[in-house]
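Quarterly update, task 2.4: flavin mononucleotide-bound model.
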Amino acid sequence: MINAYSKIKIAYYSGTGGTEMASKQFQKDLESKGCICTIEQITEGMNRNQEEHDLLLLLFPVHAFNAPNAVYKWIDALEAVEKACAAVISVSGGGDICPNTACRVSSIKRLTQKGYRVIYDKMIVMPSNWIILPPNPLPYLLIQALPKMVRKITDDLLSDVRKKTHPLWIDRIFSLIGRLETLGGHYWGKQIKVTEHCTRCGWCAEHCPSGNIIMLDGRPTFGRKCHFCLNCIYSCPSKALQPGIFRFIVIQEGYCLQHIAEQLPKNTQIPVKDLKVGLLWLGVKKYLMSVGDDWEG
Ligand SMILES: Cc1cc2nc3c(=O)[nH]c(=O)nc-3n(C[C@H](O)[C@H](O)[C@H](O)COP(=O)(O)O)c2cc1C
């Protein structure tokens, strides 16, 4: 069968690596099915190449029931297109349930204004990077489910299956309120504390997707452009950065997807439908059940 799309541009924003992991999985899967893919990470002030493509695949993490502002800036700076289609994939910690369901609405609207025909949108779930980690074994199961979910989506896209979700009205309101997170993030980032453990290695400044951290006299200094991605705090090699306010947003035990992936249980089969997960993680269970019920380590 001939693929519905041959030249695919993948553009993603990622803070702590979950969306990046999903985007690279899409690239691998699409290339194995004969597509030509380009991949671009959305960061502040990046150089943009508008490669020729017949499908744009946009991925971003859900931030406060919405998309990070950097994604909107990126879409707004795109050149208008005439014939291309687009698919929008959000990556959340909680799943496609209230209050998350409207998180893709604004990005779909802006892409449409640029001339894209948005033919598909979907939520992927990765281990949550804010407030608390989901209880075990959900984080491992989510990482294990990723290739399977990506395969389902690429099968849909390449065979021209079109899927548009219908967000709840209440979630549209949550999503609008969530836009305030952008301002909150700017303020929160300015308050990050550098402790005595800082070795002045510059890792944080080099990897900040908003370019909010600069090294001044060898010390990291924070501006007012923080995207609230939490990457600097979790990934600092000497764990020298701490939130100055709203400490509860940061997971106390830290967050490292690599570490979670390495702890995937081996030789186990876990029937997801039997897991007791609590109300907070029902969206995660629903997602895992939609991917399939057989888990082999
Ligand atoms: C500031 C902030 C807000 C978030 N808001 C939500 C949310 O509203 N709903 C949700 O399900 N997950 C939320 N998350 C969790 C992320 O969407 C999730 O962990 C995602 O996988 C992170 O992707 P990344 O690793 O590419 O940054 C939030 C994370 C952060 C840091």
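Highlight for this quarter: Residues 14-20, 61-65, 91-94, 100, 126, 128-130, 228-230 surround flavin mononucleotide (CB under 6 Å).
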